[in-house]
């Protein structure tokens, strides 16, 4: 994106790339979308991609790749041990993050598995700005607990706070004082905090967290999966960083972190995962887990072609005109929905546009999964696939009691450089129509409920005949149109 001024009309985000390979999309009639949703058990994870028009489920592994990434993939060195591709990626990670040691893994949660197995013990407490689903599951599996320490602003749906992902420094200090240093293996900061709407932390906040960590001798761990958005927001919103380059901001963030890990399905726009550190002891502790769970140390379960693409993707992340496309498209979508009265998370974050289901369908009780129901309804009336980020994404407690989520969001993810502005306009149009017809949306109940990460595979059904009524209203309003 470039800050290009339009002479007529309002400025809109302008793409600084052109499309050279395309994939045909299907837009099914509403009746067929309803059938597909029924078959998927009202769970957008279970839809077939051929039935989806705009796949806004996630940005994971579905960002557009550049011509340079594709070209690099042809040069991959396919050897089990000592691959030149590994060296290339290792060198790029060292150049960008300044970390000497690199451990490859097949994706982000594999890094979390290794880190949790090495550092989390029964009774461990892990403070963080906010949890991510897979992060929490690995920590809990190893007997630890997650303590989220954010400022009140983090959970305010509508705010003008530029850095809702900040760690609450006073709470961090209190937590350490109350529980003692020995119980805390690391403090985790998640860039572009996923579950509260892709909200960033500030560089100053990270400096402050590091100061506290240094005082107590605690390791600072960075989840850099959504770093590219966070970098853009620091550059854009943090006055004191205006004159820093993206590379300089990245380097300072990296210098403040003892261990960095990321899902390369997001950062680097390919598919894989990585852990890096300059601490040899820490590296040695984690190393054997790579060979045990992932693969040999020079590929860690990744295809060497993907590793080539990650090396180029990381370099491209240093280009502001590349990393600002996602946040600027998201800001456009958020602002257009706001104009039409649709409740969305503000300020616009990275990752995607987050619709506030708690308000959109405030007539649906939380134990009937308002965000899940809204995600299903959005698909039925548009073919746009979003993701539930609410109570369905939580896990019941040991007694089977439903844990109600702090937020009920539908995430409409914006995979980077994938959609055109007219497609985004289409999504806005349909969501706005749905908002005017929101009273037709009803609740959901489980018919098949897995005990772990139930949102991936669980099957649900509607609590009334609302889905049919919604599809009929769509047909009445749109006539023959899809
Ligand atoms: N950390 C963060 C902040 C993430 O967003 C994700 C994945 C992971 C770790 C795990 O990485 O998927 O490569 O194993 N987020 C995806 C999403 C699943 O759709 O938001 P992974």
From TrEMBL:
Pfam families: Beta_elim_lyase. Keywords: Lyase, Pyridoxal phosphate. Its EC number is 4.1.99.1. It comes from the Bacteria. Residues 55-424 form the Aromatic amino acid beta-eliminating lyase/threonine aldolase domain. Belongs to the beta-eliminating lyase family. The modification N6-(pyridoxal phosphate)lysine is found at residue 266. GO terms for molecular function: tryptophanase activity. Its cofactor is pyridoxal 5'-phosphate. Gene3D superfamilies: Aspartate Aminotransferase, domain 1 (3.90.1150.10), Type I PLP-dependent aspartate aminotransferase-like (Major domain) (3.40.640.10). The keyword NAD does not apply. InterPro entries: ArAA_b-elim_lyase/Thr_aldolase, Beta-eliminating_lyase, PyrdxlP-dep_Trfase, PyrdxlP-dep_Trfase_major, PyrdxlP-dep_Trfase_small. This is Tryptophanase. It is an enzyme of class 4 (lyase).
């Amino acid at each position: 994106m470039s800050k290009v001024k339009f002479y007529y009309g309002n400025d809109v985000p302008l793409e600084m790339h052109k499309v050279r390979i395309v994939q045909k999309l299907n837009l099914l009639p509403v009746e067929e979308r309803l059938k597909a949703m029924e078959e998927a058990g009202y769970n957008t994870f279970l839809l077939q991609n051929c039935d989806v028009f705009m796949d806004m489920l996630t940005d994971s592994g579905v960002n557009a790749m550049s011509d340079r990434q594709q070209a690099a993939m042809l040069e991959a060195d396919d050897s089990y041990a000592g691959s030149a591709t590994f060296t290339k990626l290792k060198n790029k990670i060292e150049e960008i993050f300044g970390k000497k040691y690199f451990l490859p893994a097949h994706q982000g949660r594999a890094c979390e598995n290794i880190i949790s197995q090495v550092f989390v013990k029964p009774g461990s407490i892990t403070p963080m700005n906010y949890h991510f689903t897979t992060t929490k599951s690995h920590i809990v599996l190893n007997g630890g607990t997650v303590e989220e320490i954010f400022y009140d602003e983090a959970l305010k749906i509508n705010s003008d706070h530029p850095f809702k992902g900040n760690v609450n420094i006073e709470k961090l200090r209190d937590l350490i004082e109350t529980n003692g240093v020995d119980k805390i293996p690391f403090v985790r900061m998640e860039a572009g905090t996923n579950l509260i709407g892709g909200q960033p932390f500030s560089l100053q906040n990270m400096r402050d967290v590091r100061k506290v960590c240094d005082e107590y001798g605690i390791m600072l761990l960075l989840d850099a999966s959504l770093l590219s958005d966070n970098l853009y927001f620091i550059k854009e919103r943090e006055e004191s960083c205006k004159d820093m380059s993206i590379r300089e901001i990245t380097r300072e963030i990296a210098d403040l972190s003892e261990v960095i890990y990321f899902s390369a399905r997001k950062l680097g726009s390919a598919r894989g995962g990585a852990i890096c550190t300059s601490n040899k002891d820490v590296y040695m502790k984690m190393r054997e887990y790579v060979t045990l769970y992932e693969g040999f140390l020079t590929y860690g379960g990744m295809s060497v072609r993907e590793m080539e693409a990650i090396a180029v993707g990381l370099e491209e992340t240093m280009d502001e005109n590349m990393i600002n496309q996602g946040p600027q498209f998201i800001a456009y979508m958020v602002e257009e929905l706001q104009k039409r009265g649709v409740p969305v998370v503000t300020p616009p974050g990275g990752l995607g546009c987050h619709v506030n289901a708690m308000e959109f369908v405030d007539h649906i009780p939380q134990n009937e999964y308002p965000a899940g129901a809204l995600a299903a309804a959005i698909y039925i009336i548009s073919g746009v696939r979003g993701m539930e980020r609410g109570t369905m994404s939580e896990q019941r407690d040991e007694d089977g009691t439903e844990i109600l989520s702090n937020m009920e969001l539908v995430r409409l993810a914006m995979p980077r450089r994938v959609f055109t502005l007219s497609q985004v306009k289409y999504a806005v149009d349909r969501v706005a129509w749905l908002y005017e017809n929101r009273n037709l949306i009803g609740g959901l109940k489980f018919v098949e409920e897995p005990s772990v990460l139930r949102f991936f595979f669980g099957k649900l059904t509607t609590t009334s005949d609302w889905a049919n009524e919604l599809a009929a209203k769509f047909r009445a309003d749109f006539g023959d149109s899809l």
